Amino acid sequence: MSENVNSKLFTKQDQSTFENPIIWSDVPDPDVIRVGDTYYMTSTTMHMNPGVPIMKSSNLLHWEIVHYVYDILAENDEQMLSNGKNEYGKGSWASCLRYHQDIFYVVVGSLATGKTYIFQTANIEKGPWERFTLNEYYHDMSLLFDDDGRVYLTYGNGDIKVIELTEDATAIKGGGLNKVIILNASLVASAKKDIGLLAEGSHIQKMNGYYYVFTITWPKNGNRVHLVHRANRIDGEYEGRIAVADPKGIAQGGIIDTVNGAWYSMLFCDNESVGRTPCLIQVTWEDGWPVFGEQGKLPKRMPLPMTDKPSSSLIVNSDEFHSDTGTVGLVWQWNHNPDNEHWSLIERPGYLRLRNGKICTNLEDARNTLTQRTFGPECSGHTAMEVTNMKDGDISGFAAFQKNYGFVGVKMSGDSKSIVMVNGSLGSAEIIESIPINQERVYFKIDFDFRNQIDKAFFYYSLDHVNWNLIGNNLQMRYKLDHFMGYRFALFNYATKTTGGFVDFDYFRIEDTIFREGN
After folding, report:
1. What's the mean per-residue pLDDT of the chain?
2. Per the domain annotation, does 327 fall within a domain?
3. Phi-psi map region of 209: left, alpha, beta (phi>0 left; psi -120 to 50 alpha)
């Protein structure tokens, strides 16, 4: 895929302004810092591995994945899709990114392990990362290095709490500060306490002698809102106000200053099945309070953060599967922990080989499903797959992956193979159409239409890579909290009867326009 597709994925801009979302793809819970004239961002990736991407930008608008914080977080049944367990929607949540005295810090918690992890490195773009573990899950935590050398985490939902860490930020400090600092922070948004989502997603920052705590809450019968509280001591008396009350529900994030002294905030908004998309909003100051956008609303267009800073854009990409190192590209993530004994880019150079190492019940149960983000307003992906070495009961192909998934692939029954389209729009994945084949190389395509929240995926197959045939019916995509992420392109192979079968994917290619009749 050319840089052109990634450029279209990112914000529309002219010579002096831009509009949101800055990335029309699933980049939830963003946390952004500036180091010199470079910006870094982390984001939630839940059950996908490697986890917590490090994204880099020179202009706050165009971002490139340059590294991940960890390969795997744990090796329990939940992470390895074993014994009927999984960690869908329960992997690493809402990471915090900080830089202090030449060290980069990422703090992230996992609902699956019930722990919080502190990662440290001197080189954010290459690592390695050293990991320290807190044996408790601190919900949506945020790290603060105070001027006096003390170190704190804020966390919680409803009540926002603070707990003190050791000076090297590796453990909880014995006898340190540990208390509620903002009681029922949601009251700022609704004095009647009619709150659907209690205040959470804290981001703490200290500026000009004040401690600012940003949170997100969701009043019933309303939209998600962004809050800010401030106090002149970490455990002082906090006063709060609504910072953003946009009809799109834009919220959750801190603020960041540019080299030229302007201020911005990176928040996110729901974009239905494509996921939660990041939005950049300008911030000004009045009486020591940050003022977001235009009276708490997101303007349609805003001035560019900087006009002379070109930046790379790469968070999705085509792949011909040529690898000197045997590793997949940074745009790819495995669903749960990969089983490294059963996939390869070097057994057959130029191909991704997926070999079945366990018996599965469905796609959600499969190991070594390789995924990357879809993107709006519309996108299309296609792949070539060779199926000579499938075994009875094997199912392999190309999926639109979320809880209610759909796919086009090959199913082997006895000695016979068929192209099948499976639709899980209503929750239970069912074969909609099956077409017998007697050849060993097939081609699959999926079109995604996210325009105006149409949220439909269309499935195609080809026997010659020239003539494409629509198969089955369209998938009505829905953003489900079971997975808590946007739909993904997914290459997969799983066994229902016996292990050892394998398939080879020749390439994966994406476009920013979808296939239409007559193309």
Report:
1. 94
2. no
3. left
Of 281, 303, 325, which one is at a domain's C-terminal end? 303
Percent of the chain topping pLDDT 90? 88
pTM: 0.95
Query: How far is residue 444 from each of residues 86, 397, 403, measured CA to CA in Å?
Result: 28, 8, 21
Q: Which two tokens stand for residue 37?
A: 């004239």
Peptide bond into 128 cis (omega under 30): yes
In the block, residue with structure tokens 């939005």: 279
Alpha-carbon torsion 186, 234, 181, 268, what sign?
positive
Cβ–Cβ under 8 Å, residues 239 and 231: yes
Question: Is the per-residue pLDDT at 518 higher than 90?
Answer: no
Cβ atoms within 10 Å of 177's Cβ, excluding its own: 15
Is residue 247 domain-shared with residue 102, that is, in the same domain?
yes
Total Cβ atoms within 10 A of residue 168: 11
Q: How far apart are the C-alpha atoms of 122 and 145, rounded to whole Å?
A: 17
Q: Note the pLDDT tens digit of each residue in 291-346.
A: 999 988 999 899 889 877 777 789 999 999 999 899 999 999 999 999 999 999 99
Instruction: Take residue 437 and report the two structure tokens written for it.
Output: 């084949």
Which of residues 261, 283, 303 is at a domain's end?
303
Q: Where residue 355 falls among pLDDT bands split at 50, 70, 90?
A: very high
Strand partners, 240: 229
Over the stretch 119-143, which tens digit does the pLDDT of each residue have? 999 999 999 999 999 999 999 999 9
H-assigned helices in 15-174: 77-80
Category of 247 on φ-ψ map: left (φ > 0), alpha (ψ -120 to 50) or beta: alpha
Instruction: Give me the domain span that covers residue 198.
Output: 3-303
